[in-house]
Amino acid sequence: MNTRFGASRLTLLYMLAAGLWVLLSDGLLASLGLTLAQFERLQSLKGLLFVLLSGALLYGLLRAQQHRLTRTSRDLGASEDSLRQAAAVFEATQEGVLVTDAEQRIVHVNPAFSRITGYSAEEVLGREPSLLKSGRHDTAFYRGLWEALQRHGSWSGEVWNRRKSGEIYPQWHCIRAIHDAQGRIGHYVAVFSDISALKRSERELDQLAHYDPLSALPNRRLFSERLAHAFDRARRGQSQGAVLLIDLDHFKHINESLGHNVGDLLLRAVGERFAAQLGDDMTLARLGGDEFGLLCERCPAPDQATGLAQRLLHSLASPFLLAGHELYIGASIGISLFPEAIDDVEQVLRNADSALFKAKSNGREGFAFYDQGLTEYARQRVELVGALRQALDGDQLRLHYQPLHELHDGRLLGVEALVRWQHPQRGLVPPAEFIPIAEDSGLIGAIDAWVLERACRQMVAWQASGVALRFVAVNVSSRLFGRGELDRQVTRVLAETGLDPACLELEVTESAVMEDPDAAQERLERLRRLGVGLAIDDFGTGYSSLARLKRLPVHKLKLDQSFVRGLPHDGDDAAISRAVIALGHSLGLQVVAEGIEQPEQAEFLRRLGCDYGQGYHFGRPVAAEQIGSAPAARARPGEPQPQPQEVL
Ligand code: C2E
Ligand code: MG
Ligand code: MG
Q: Into which CATH architecture does domain 387-634 fall?
């Protein structure tokens, strides 16, 4: 368009100049007063000059035009060359290339694209790149990608896509938006390479550096790295952990007598048995030779480490059948808890090592804590669990019953069943000494089931023999309550014993309820629907929220005995007792005071309006036969009665 405009302007200019030349030169010649001959000569000269000038002008213009044409054809040749080169690169490159239009429809792919994805060009042209999606990335990932493309015009990163075969693979992806002359996005070009081989070798390298090739367990290096992390976290006060060093006893003999191949098989099999005992947050490593390490990142109490050590030792109890041999192997375990006054992570391992030495010198096939006191404590606990298991099997548990009285007239109302252990050597063991151990070791489920059934049967027996009791109360351990199957168990026991649900009361501690208040509320509602009574035990010690308490479907609050102990003189205890009684009544609940030992306490509580009382003043926990015969029903507040003595 510019050239055309220039050409017409030039022509006009030329015509104007030529016209002026003709007019002015003729006028000039006429005004000179020349002779005809002179005039004619000058006229011819003027004509010749005109031709000369026009010719020169024409020559100049044609030369310029020719130059331009030569330059343009040279430029055209060069861009054709570069197009040819680009096409060759596009075809030959190892990277997959995919071009879409602005609407993200594929308009071009190269052979490498087909090689990597398995799709031919015909299969994908006109379709959207989303057909390659693996489903591994969420929408937030793609949103980020598109935002970067809009904002910066390009994006690069790792993408997991799916080949036509269905295989999911990682690729490194660069996408660019291509703008047209008006600045609008016209195309997107994506260039990608398959990095699965790279990833594989990365993994292999990591495997070699961090895992033991024989057992496929983490090696010492990975173990130390994880321990360092766990130690840091523990020191920042977020957790407590334990390291267990496990050394196989007499492994050398197996290597020497049966050869290294059998030894290797055994190490692998031991690793598998150990691994089967562990939770997700633990790291089991083979530290070298016949030594394994176990890192337990969450180990809030020594008992858990004890339990873990026992499980590991127990897992070796049955023989290994390897290469036609039946092999037995034991182990010794050293335990170090951290952070526990430990300065650096190396010390955790050193302590575990000393503990391991101690375990070995204690006669192998056992475990030891770095701290001697803990080892002794753990040993006693282990013995106790074993003995308790025997107690359950050997019928050594007993139920005693403690009366609950009306405070205003002293009438016997019901009894609370309290378990005891008739130990062959130690005599009658109180529940405080074995219930926590039973909870830790899981034996509590069996104990609670036994108590529930025995108490219900006893109540039916009392009713049959005319003992006037309104209910029997049974304590429910937080463990059993937390499992949430209590309603089914209660339904079964009621059906089996034939006890009226209204004659059974379940006591759940305030802390068990507050562990998970929502779940507790739902469980209590299920129990209430069965028709049994519900009481919150040890009330005042568990930080109940009032709002929560209001919604709990319970009938009774049992004021914890620690608040009764100081009555009537201790001002704090008096204030708390008064508040709990008022609170209970305002929520429509009955209040029982526990641990009443003195007549003044009973009288004081009665005056505060407390409904019921329980404690040595009214009667100690006694065997079932003594309940039927005791003159308990005649008791009055302030009138202690002759007591059958419970020896604990
Ligand atoms: P608890 O349910 O609060 O039981 C009341 C405890 O206070 C009983 O202790 C009882 O003997 C004691 N006690 C009653 N009156 C007095 C008193 O006047 N003065 C003093 N100092 N103590 C008094 P016990 O039998 O040793 O039971 C302790 C805890 O063990 C119970 O507290 C209960 O939480 C638990 N427990 C007892 N039996 C069972 C059971 O069968 N299953 C479960 N899961 N826990 C039980
Ligand atoms: Mg109780
Ligand atoms: Mg209590």
A: Alpha-Beta Barrel (3.20)
Tell me the per-residue pLDDT of 596-648, one tens digit each, with 9 for 90 and over: 999 999 999 999 999 999 999 999 999 999 987 655 443 344 444 444 455 45
Cβ distance 256 to 308 under 8 Å?
no
Consecutive H or E run containing 176: strand 168-179
Q: What are phi and psi of 57, to 5 degrees?
A: -60, -45
Residue owning the nearest CA to atom 19 of ligand 1: 595
Task: Report the separation in Å between the CA atom of 592 and the middle of ligand 3, taken as the mean of its atom positions.
Answer: 10
Phi-psi region of 192 (alpha: psi -120 to 50; beta: other; left: phi over 0): beta
Higher pLDDT, 226 or 203: 226
247 lines ligand 1 (CB under 6 A): no
Cis peptide bond prior to 568, omega within 30° of 0: yes
Q: Is 263 in the pocket of ligand 1 (CB under 6 A)?
A: no
Query: Domain 215-370 adopts which CATH fold?
Result: Alpha-Beta Plaits (3.30.70)
Largest CA distance in the chain: 174
Say what the pTM is: 0.55
On the 0-12 / 13-18 / 19+ scale of CB atoms within 10 A, 630 is buried
C-alpha pair distances (Å), 623 with each of 94, 469, 472, 523, 578:
88, 15, 14, 31, 33
Pair 98, 106: CB distance under 8 Å: yes
- 54 — pLDDT class (breaks 50, 70, 90): confident
Report residue 5 as tokens: 């405009």
Core vs surface per residue 547-571: b (16+ CB within 10 A) or e: eebeebebebbbbbbebbeebbeee
Is residue 597 in contact with ligand 1, taking CB distance under 6 Å? yes
Q: Where are the domains of the chain?
A: 2-85, 93-200, 215-370, 387-634
Q: Exposed, middle or buried by CB within 10 Å (0-12, 13-18, 19+), for 30?
A: exposed
Q: Is 95 in the pocket of ligand 1 (CB under 6 A)?
A: no
**Homologous superfamily of the 93-200 domain (CATH):** PAS domain (3.30.450.20)
Reading the block at residue 464, the tokens are 């049959």
To which H or E segment does residue 404 belong?
strand 397-406
Contact between residue 403 and residue 609 where contact means Cβ atoms under 8 Å apart: no
Residue labelled with tokens 């378990």: 419
Per residue in 413-470, pLDDT tens?
999 999 999 988 888 899 988 888 888 778 888 899 999 999 999 999 999 998 889 9
Residue written as tokens 């049974």?
474
Contact 292, 268 (CB under 8 A): no
Write out the two tokens for 169.
């693979």
Distance from the CA of 49 to the center of ligand 1, in angstroms? 137
> Is the CB of residue 403 below 6 angstroms from any atom belonging to ligand 1?
no
